[in-house]
Design a protein that fits this description.
two-stranded antiparallel ribbon, single chain, 68 residues
Length: 68
């Protein structure tokens, strides 16, 4: 099973212009997704849940922080 991530948002939560540059295929095993795959190119990503935008960041101490 795979999921494609193609949405790219800036700090204001607006979608970026070059979506094709941000497209990435992620491999899921059951309900698991390796965080190394999520953060292979960036240390921060935006999760869109309904109308809300959440920011998932990887810290310098290798911890995850999720903020609204």
């Amino acid at each position: 099973m795979s999921a494609t991530s193609g949405d790219r948002f800036d700090a204001a939560g607006k979608q970026a212009d070059s979506v094709s540059d941000a497209a990435k295929t992620l491999i899921m095993r059951g309900n698991r997704l390796d965080s190394r795959d999520l953060f292979s190119t960036e240390r921060e990503l935006i999760i869109v849940h309904g109308e809300e935008h959440y920011r998932l960041r990887l810290t310098s101490q290798n911890k995850l922080i999720l903020t609204k």
